[in-house]
Amino acid sequence: MTIDWSQQRILILAPHPDDETLGCGGLMSKAKAAGAEVYVQFMTVGDTADSSPKGVSTAAERYGEIKRVAEFYRWDGWEVAFPGDEFHLKLDRLPRFQLANMIERHSALSIAELRPTTLIAPHRTSYNQDHQVTAEAAHTALRPSNAALRHHPALVLAYEEAADQWRLEPAPAPNLLVRLAESHVDDKVAAMRLYGTQIHDHPHTRSELTLRSLAALRGMQGGFSFAEGFHVLRWSA
């Protein structure tokens, strides 16, 4: 399977700011260098309790981080669908119909408006409820239908994060390995550092060593130095 990233318009669904970098940071670096368009649809952002001296990361801080990461990666667009504490870490309270419709058509970065060639969403087996409902809503929005009437991205992937290993039922191993150069991994780590409220010292699922170790493991599984792993949900050749 060979993907010409220079020809791709990529839409990434990120439940929260940093998920797109944790799951696709290397791919974004590789694709943008090749000439791809990259868009990020964040689902929600709000004040977040954390282990910092303050004990909380504010929504304003996290918006600032998004802007710095967007500039770093040269994203072609991004937006937040459901901002505020009413929704943050509570997306499972929203009707699936509302979530799926936002992804499908009710957003400037919806499938209908953007017409991406590649869509990448979180994996359903994450322990996080916002990740789960985002994955399920994307699955609904991407349901099979007449492609002459509804846009169907040719490539649909689910990304992984190290924290997804905390599962009641193990997920299958990724069936697509996107080969990365060391510079792509460096960019992923640099972007996570820009998410200063979210990166942590090792041992943590969002530490630099964790990111580099997972990239090295996925690379080894493909016979090269570094990679990111994905689950192929649809590939229309």
UniProtKB/TrEMBL annotation:
Family matches, as Gene3D superfamilies: LmbE-like
This protein's record includes keyword Zinc: yes
Organism superkingdom: Bacteria
Keywords annotated in UniProt: Zinc
Biological processes, Gene Ontology terms: glycoside metabolic process
Pfam families: PIG-L
Positions in coiled-coil regions: none
Residues spanning the membrane: none
GO function term, MF aspect, one: hydrolase activity, acting on carbon-nitrogen (but not peptide) bonds, in linear amides
Keyword Transcription regulation set for record: no
Name of the protein in question: PIG-L family deacetylase
Lineage: Bacteria, Bacillati, Actinomycetota, Actinomycetes, Streptosporangiales
